[in-house]
Amino acid sequence: xxxxxxxxxxxxxxxxxxxxxxxxxxxxxxxxxxxxxxxxxxxxxxxxxxxxxxxxxxxxxxxxxxxxxxxxxxxxxxxxxxxxxxxxxxxxxxxxxxxxxxxxxxxxxxxxxxxxxxxxxxxxxxxxxxxxxxxxxxxxxxxxxxxxxxxxxxxxxxxxxxxxxxxxxxxxxxxxxxxxx
Length: 181
Prior knowledge:
Elements (H helix, E strand, L loop, with lengths): L5 H9 L3 H23 L2 H17 L10 H19 L17 H5 L1 H14 L2 H12 L4 H8 L3 H21 L6
Helix pairs in contact: 1-2, 2-3, 2-4, 3-4, 4-8, 6-9, 7-9, 8-9
């Protein structure tokens, strides 16, 4: 059985076929969840965002323009919902001098798990808009064109934001004693 393309499934959804929407959910649930998890770093929050994303997508299928890719549209909803979830969180406060010296020794630099954690921690310290471009490019491995579609920005703006986001992330990592160069 040949798998139907997104526009066909959306058309069937608009005609009342709930099975078609289930197929879209199955197709995009993992990427939507992953983008939310990368930005929120909390499984339950990411699951909530994914659920809200699909609920909003279902409610607004009539607004979807089939001349655009469906995954760009659903990712945009997911990014917006993730940013809303981040905005609803209380600001995190520092440990007021209780931080352990983050200067890494040679064994720590070699430890990939600690480096990964440092990157994730640093990612949570940059602006959500910056975090979203890093997530889309480096974790979701999207092209600049796809990112521009999702974020509804010109491609040059996406590249500029990504450059600024990388600089901010690098700065945070260097503050933690992690140099990835």
